[in-house]
Amino acid sequence: MKSGATAQDVARLAQVSQSAVSRTFTPGASVSEDTRNRVMIAAKSLDYRPNAMARSLITRRSRIIALVISYLDNQFYPLVIEALSQKLQKQGYHLLMFISDGQETDGVLDEILQYQIDGVVMASATLSPDLARQCADVGVPVVLFNRVPDISAFGRHTTCSVTSDNYRGGQLAAELLLERGHRRIAFLAGLENSSTNLERERGFNDAMKKARSKFHGRAVGNYNFEGAKEATRALFANKSEVPDAIFVANDHMAIAAMDVLRQELGLHVPGDVSVVGFDDVPQAAWGAYRLTTVIQSVELMVEATVDLLHEQMKDGARPRNVVIPCEVVERDSVRAAVPDSPSPKRASRAKPTSSSRPSA
Asked: Looking at domain 64-164+298-324, which of 3.40.50.2000, 3.30.70.20, 3.40.50.2300, 3.30.450.20 is its CATH number?
């Protein structure tokens, strides 16, 4: 049977003020241990449960964060959802998830703004300048996760973002493959216009140029499993001179590429072809793949995202971009080092960096 007890009833029984009852059930609010214990005992005896909807009407805060996400088949993003949800729940917030069917999210955000949300996190999705302006007008902060805003399109309407150091990650992949003696190195791209793909490829290309080398081939997988398979077949279509290594823009595609190389083309990884991915999803460490990859720290990226949300919700701090350092984890998909050869450079576990100016 549903309890009809109110906050006033709890306050009366606990012999405290109604505001003390409210603070007791508000995460992070200041209340003495004695008062908290008296309120909780009274609430339990009356079978009282706070009404979150009613409280949000009073405080104008729902303690709900909207998450817009796409590409759930990419194993990286379920990790993000779990970590972000747990982090927010510990702080008394809850996640309301919206699934986007691609990069354009204007329709989804139109729907989101009908709810009384406290903030928006957009993962693997693009925010248009018009929607960024609408969010700013109603005081709803937005943080882009694993994407950066296009400053040429946004002008003065900037948005916070959190990414790993995609440029450095691309460099690390190239440095490793070059140090291991590879000279016919191909690149398997993700989405052509995504900031993650652009930066990873730019870093990879710059490191190759520095070594006076160049791509042996390039194909586009669009961060899609079947697309990556098709792209791998295209890279190896010319039997006369096939790549001896591939840098793949994420692990989801790298696993697809390894399946094609071994199961369809009869090639050995890394004996015939070395493969480097990007993300370090759990499947990368599975015995069937043992993928060498560039690590994106989900924990650090989520922590930075939540910090940015709080900054924006609290005092509307100036938007900034946080860049999380990355590094390579070596497994078995890249040929072993030549004896007495120098080790490839590695990114240090430095603290995240940030800038008040959005990246291009």
From this structure: 3.40.50.2300
